[in-house]
Amino acid sequence: MKAKLLVSAIAAAMMSSFALTAPALAHPGEQHQAVPQTAEGEGTVTAIDAQAGTVTLNHGPIASLGWPAMTMTFRVHSAAVLQGVSVGQRVHFELMNDNGRPMVTEIHVL
């Protein structure tokens, strides 16, 4: 009985030492190397929810993050980021790491 308890304790200790934290700007469900705290991309605005403080972008690949082209909804740093931006516009955007999650800090209409 003591042997089972000892084995369980060792296994639990080993598992906790291998716990992983999400790298900066990680894309959920994918393994990434360490990535920068900021990144830039280009894409098309497909939705804006000013009340929720989000923008949905159909963006091209973001090489610095290892992300392929995809459509993602991002939180925005402030409502001011969305001023002058509307659905259907092609934009250049900047992301920053906000506790491991990408947040749009700037959007510029192209």
Structure, explained:
Helices cover 15% and strands 39% of the residues. With 110 residues, the protein is mostly beta strands. It has a single domain (2-109), classed as Beta Barrel (OB fold (Dihydrolipoamide Acetyltransferase, E2P)). A 5-stranded mixed beta barrel has the order 1-2-3-5-4. The longest helix is centred in the first third of the chain and has 16 residues, at 2-17. It is globular and about 30 Å long. The protein starts with a helix and ends with a strand.
Q: Would you identify the regions where 5 or more consecutive residues have pLDDT less than 50?
A: 1-24
Query: What is the overall number of helices?
Result: 1
- How much is the radius of gyration in Å? 19 Å
Fraction of residues in β-strands: 35-45%
Mean pLDDT: 78
The fold-level CATH name is OB fold (Dihydrolipoamide Acetyltransferase, E2P)
Largest β sheet strand count, sense and barrel closure: 5 strands, mixed, barrel
* Total strands: 5
Neighbour order of strands in the largest sheet = 1-2-3-5-4
> How many domains comprise the coordinates?
1
- Helix fraction, binned, reads 10-25%
Q: Please name the CATH architecture.
A: Beta Barrel
Element-level helix/strand string: HEEEEE
Structural class, from secondary structure content? mainly beta
CATH class: Mainly Beta
Overall shape: it is globular
